[in-house]
Amino acid sequence: MTIILPFGDHTPVIDPSVYVAPNATIIGDVVVGEGSSLWFNVVLRGDVSPIRIGRRSNIQDGTVVHVSDGGPGTDIGDDVTVGHMALLHACTVESFAFIGMKACVMDGAIVESGAMVAAGALVTPGKRVRAGQLWAGTPARFMRQVSEIERAYFGWSAANYAKLARAYHSGDGRFDPADVEASGSGVAAGVEAAAQRLARDRS
Hints:
The protein is an alpha/beta fold. Helix content is 19%, strand content 32%. Strands 1, 2, 4, 6, 8, 9, 11, 12, 14, 15, 17 and 18 form a twelve-stranded parallel β-sheet that branches. Strand 19 (133-136) and strand 20 (141-145) form a beta hairpin. The chain is globular. The relative contact order is 0.11.
């Protein structure tokens, strides 16, 4: 059963279009924007500081989002993918960023727009992952620039999850990833085109 709890003077505010999985937990000063999705076993605990999630962002299964006592909240922008079992704590993830599975982003860290934190990475407190950079490792450090294919995938991933969430929300269970589009253009086709260009450049 979904658990949505007030804490102090705050009750979660969740747009009606958001898909919330049956066993997700949302507590306190949490706002979730249009078209986003909160998947199975997600915990958003905005008890001592706020959590803000923008539009069309997906917070995948087992992810925990928390805040610091009396310190900064956690801000997640629009069209963000947060992979399974990630941990986001009192940090900022800007729009169009990508957080890999089991990644951890700690207090005061900032992941800028279009940046990627690799699966299993630990972004330590106060670090800034610059736009277009890929960070990996424990502790995480800059590895390289995000590739053209990866940038296209970020948009496709957000659109794909938004469509999947609508299928869950409607209860009809009908979903075809081939139909996914974002901003009026086929993102999956963009990924394929980017892959073909890179292959030509390397040949």
